[in-house]
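// run 5 | inverse folding | seed 20
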């Protein structure tokens, strides 16, 4: 019996590895699950195609999830591209900035996404958001940190005057543990789906297939995914 069998969750679903595992996690716990994605001129817009394919596979390969999986929405967050020149929304080289962060950092992105998701949840009468932010093993993005998410949750609860819980099941997992969680949730079938259909590469490269999936193999996101997968395989 699912933990929140009578409740609905809204999952921030990008089509990447982490949010796909979060979606599976939510489908194991909630009676009904809806998804929201954002289009913001991301360089790896291929992610948006991947997310449709992942949703389609979830519906066809996992009958126990298909019946719980509800509406999907993609929201235009193109204002982020308008605001700034980061490596994820332009063709700039990926490098470190003076602030000590990679220029793949999109300022305000996760706070904006949680706010938009919170607004949709409010409209839909949904009290649970599920998001894939991760403080461990990540690029040091300050808007992925637990404190930032907790503070944003509080701001949403106060600003919407409603009970809204933000669940971040991957906050303290590393990439190896994320693969392990996928396996625990639905075995090799989910692991293979993630390898084949989710997207992580910052450069949007899907021309090269590695044992851990598609990507350039050299950007920080590919390196992290490859390293995590190798550690996961060794742990089997
Ligand atoms: Zn890459």
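// decoded
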């Amino acid at each position: 019996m699912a933990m929140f069998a009578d409740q609905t969750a809204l999952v921030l679903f990008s089509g990447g590895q982490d949010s796909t595992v979060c979606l599976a996690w939510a489908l194991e716990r909630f009676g009904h699950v809806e998804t929201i994605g954002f289009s913001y001129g991301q360089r790896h817009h291929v992610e948006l195609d991947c997310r449709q394919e992942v949703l389609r596979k979830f519906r066809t390969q996992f009958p126990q999830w298909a019946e719980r999986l509800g509406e999907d929405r993609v929201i235009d967050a193109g204002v982020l591209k308008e605001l700034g020149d980061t490596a994820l929304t332009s063709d700039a080289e990926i490098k470190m900035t003076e602030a000590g962060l990679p220029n793949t950092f999109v300022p305000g992105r996760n706070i904006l996404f949680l706010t938009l998701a919170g607004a949709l949840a409010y409209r839909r009468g949904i009290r649970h958001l599920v998001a894939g932010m991760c403080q461990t093993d990540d690029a040091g993005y300050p808007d992925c940190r637990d404190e930032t998410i907790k503070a944003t949750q509080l701001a949403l609860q106060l600003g919407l005057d409603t009970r809204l819980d933000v669940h971040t099941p991957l906050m303290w997992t590393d990439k190896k543990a994320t693969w392990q969680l996928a396996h625990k949730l639905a075995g090799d079938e989910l692991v293979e789906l993630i390898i084949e259909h989710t997207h992580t590469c910052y450069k949007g490269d899907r021309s090269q297939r590695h044992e851990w999936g598609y990507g350039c193999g050299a950007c920080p996101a590919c390196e992290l995914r490859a390293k995590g997968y190798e550690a996961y395989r060794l742990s089997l």
